[in-house]
Amino acid sequence: MWISDSPYIGHIASIAAAALWAIASILFTRLGASINAAVLNLLKTGIACLLMLLTLKIGAGHFWPQTMTSAEVAWLAGSGLLGLTLGDTLLFMAFNRVGPRKSLLFMTLAPPTTALLAWPFLGEPITLKMCLGILITIFGVALVIDDREGSEGQQSDKGGLMLAAAAALCQAVGNIGTKLGGHHAPLEMGLVRITFGTMGLLLLVLLTRNIRSELRPLKHGKTLSMVLVATLLGTYFGIWLQVAGLRFAPAGIAATLSSTSPIFVLPLAAIWLNDRLTGRKLVAALIATLGMALLFDIG
């Protein structure tokens, strides 16, 4: 399903995932005003899960991976439940408590945490060059997110910050779980991950929301089209590429490169959301790009 002799295929896949998430985030930002965040999260993962099932059936002749062991399925299932169900839910809760800027700043803890966990659990040592690349990239991303010229109505509180930190930890542990899911085609690994993540979200939404009333905005063709496009780019291809990045690159590097969505959001937000592109943001983007270039220099 994914054939390449390039030693940087994992790096490229991770950056491509970040770029697609940036485009999808602009679309989901517009949708967030009409659809509840938890229901929207379930909707996009559910649609992407069905698309992955169909893709695997068409490409390989079966709906579910045939060569995975029970242990590998369990690792990928845990990754989906932690990252897509628990992690995303905690992040949405943090958004409501402290706002998106502070929440996303705490989410920059996920890549270095992934790298630290990858050393003992995956046998991927942390080199000096890797440390520098990760820190420089994350510093640039954090500068982009920490836009002090912006305004945020939510007040900071320790509970909200702890929720954001817990979301980052879930993402980091989920990344390790994905790596432990074996050496299979990224599509198959992504399918297992998103299937269990979707089931977890479905249970959560059924217990807390009235799905029928929440989905009424989809009766408008424009809203439904936007959901489908955002899901196709950000969830279907995005998760596929994210798993490919973790499959073919060191976990810490893949997690760092896939976290650079805020860099790609800059020009998109300036065009579509009339967000001002400041000198601070441009410098931050250059810093993050320097860090990414350093990570590409690691074999």
- Our count of domains comes out at 1
Estimate what percentage of residues fall within beta strands. under 5%
Amount of helix: over 70%
Compute the number of helices.
13
Q: Summarize the biggest pleated sheet.
A: none
Order of helices and strands: HHHHHHHHHHHHH
As a whole number of angstroms, the C-alpha radius of gyration is 18 Å
Looking at the structure, what is the overall shape?
globular
Outline of this structure?
This protein has one domain (9-296).
Description of the structure:
- With 299 residues, this protein is mainly α.
- It has one domain (9-296).
- It has 13 helices and no strands.
- The protein has helices at residues 9-31, 37-60, 70-98, 100-107, 110-122, 128-145, 158-179, 186-208, 211-214, 221-248, 251-257, 261-272, 279-296.
- Helix 3 (70-98) packs antiparallel against helix 7 and helix 6 runs parallel beside helix 11 (251-257).
- The model has no long low-confidence stretch (mean pLDDT 88).
Key traits:
mainly alpha
How are the SSEs placed, and which strands pair?
Layout: H1 9-31, H2 37-60, H3 70-98, H4 100-107, H5 110-122, H6 128-145, H7 158-179, H8 186-208, H9 211-214, H10 221-248, H11 251-257, H12 261-272, H13 279-296
Helix pairs in contact: 1-10, 1-11, 1-12, 2-3, 2-8, 2-10, 3-4, 3-7, 3-8, 4-7, 5-7, 5-11, 6-11, 6-12, 6-13, 8-10, 10-11
